[in-house]
Amino acid sequence: MEPVTVIDGHIDTILTTKIRFYHKFESTPANMRAGNVQAAFYSLCPVNKPMLVTKFTEFWFSYVRSPRHGLMQVRSVDDFDRARKEGKIGAIMHYEGAGGIDDEFKRLEEGARQGLRGLCITWADTNKFGHGAKFKGEQSREGLTELGKELVARAQALGITVDVSHLNDPSFWDVVSAAKKPFIASHSDARAVCNHPRNLTDDQIKAVKEKGGTIGINFSVKFLDEGWKTTNGKGVTFATIKKHIDHIAGVAGVETVAIGSDYDGTKIPPCLQTPTSYPALFKYLGENGYSKHDLDKIGHGNLLRVFKATWA
Ligand SMILES: [Zn+2]
After folding, report:
1. Are 145 and 184 in contact (CB under 8 A)?
2. Which of 44, 173, 200, 261 is deepest in the core (most CB within 10 A)?
3. From CA 167, how far away is CA 223, in angstroms rounded?
4. Ligand 1 mean position, distance from CA 305 (Å)
């Protein structure tokens, strides 16, 4: 099988470079190249204060522009080809949480000028725009604030893809009402397969599809398998990943499935230790019912479709 090109909807490499000095990097440019990763959302997190947005943005540019990383910022759909021709990996700017954006949306506009192309409204916290899904404990029953609904409209008007990953359920449904364009869940799995508040219910999966969006399969053991602790993640296999892909494709079609690995931000199962594992994953999926055409959609085609509809 010809290699499947990947656009990864979520990596935490920037965050990890900045704050976790002990970390052995998973999503290095060399590993990405070996796994045919063409581009990724390089998230800025946490950006819940204006000062952090400024600081992390500076760091983001210094990382992406450093010649030793071999990256090129992707601001438009045409940039994917430009990066490939130059032999570079595309870096897409993404905020994981919008708390640092002011009420007048000046910082959002500045972000758009800097090439911001994806926006999670919250992380696992609450901010003035809405409520995130807590990893544990009772969930808030409140959704987006009025300002949060306006944020959805403003972001979409500025060509920024709205991202519902990390939102709690009421906030998710408020995005559905406010969104005029497709939106994504950049890194979330199926709740019917693994019951975790970070994953999406079948009704939510259908709503993403109805708007033309995508759901990026998250490789975190916590979101893939409720029983991961019994094997410390070793029991999480390609078959577990396939269960989530099968489920989302069954509910909403293969055109709704994408990749959002969460590399460098979470505990990844041994079968997917770094992006060099992608060819083996796609080989497994190809041998178990998915055509090359399906795998190209999952790997990059579906996200590209959303970018064409939302970045303009
Ligand atoms: Zn996340």
Report:
1. no
2. 261
3. 15
4. 22
Taking the C-alpha atoms of residue 10 and residue 92, their distance in angstroms, rounded to an integer, is 10
256-277 pLDDT, tens digit each:
999 999 999 999 999 999 999 9
Residue 262 Cα, ligand 1 centroid: separation in angstroms?
7
220 Cα to the center of ligand 1, angstroms: 10
In 3D space, the residue among 86, 97, 286 whose CA is nearest the CA of residue 278 turns out to be 286
What distance in angstroms lies between residue 282's CA and the mean position of ligand 1's atoms? 23
CB–CB of 296/263 below 8 Å?
no
Burial 218-255 (b: 16+ CB within 10 A, else e): bbbbbbbbeebeeeebebbbbebbbbbbbbbbebbebb
Q: Report which DSSP code applies to 304.
A: H
Mean pLDDT by 10 residues, the chain (312 residues): 95 78 81 97 92 94 94 98 96 97 98 98 96 93 97 98 98 98 98 98 98 98 97 96 98 98 94 97 98 98 98 88
What is the phi/psi pair of residue 302, to 5°?
A: -65, -45
Secondary structure letter of residue 183 according to DSSP: -
Please give the C-alpha separations between residue 121 and each of 10, 44, 129, 204, 248, in angstroms, as whole numbers.
15, 12, 7, 17, 23
Q: How far apart are CA 185 and CA 207, in angstroms?
A: 11
135 Cα: distance to centroid of ligand 1 (angstroms)? 11
Find where tokens 């400024």 sit: 54
The pLDDT of residue 20 is 63
Please name the residue that has the structure tokens 């099968």: 246
H-helix segments, the chain: 13-19, 29-34, 50-65, 78-85, 106-114, 146-157, 169-178, 202-210, 221-224, 238-252, 278-287, 292-296, 302-310
Find, among 274, 199, 271, the residue nearest to 241 by Cα. 271
| Domain over 6-310 is classified CATH 3.20.20.140 | yes
